[in-house]
Amino acid sequence: MEGLAYLYIFMxxxxxxxxxxxxxxxxxxxPLMSGSNFVHGVVLVGGMVALGNADPAEPLQLAxxxxxxxxxxxxxxxxxVVTERMLAMFKGKKGATK
Length: 98
Hints:
flat, mainly alpha
């Protein structure tokens, strides 16, 4: 029964996240994404906790925890790369006249 509760919480979190993000105007997505890079770090920490609490005798738990850490790290790195590119768009070109 405990696994079913976790699945329910996961599905509820996914639905809630989709509903919240879908109501944000398109013009605000990039600034909100750059401002929420800390959330990617929280996801990564959650994956580390899941991997740390995995039973070493259960390879499925280890695989899921490893995938969570790997995808969380990719998500965090990607968020910072996109933010850097977005900020570069607002920098002036060298040698350009105003």
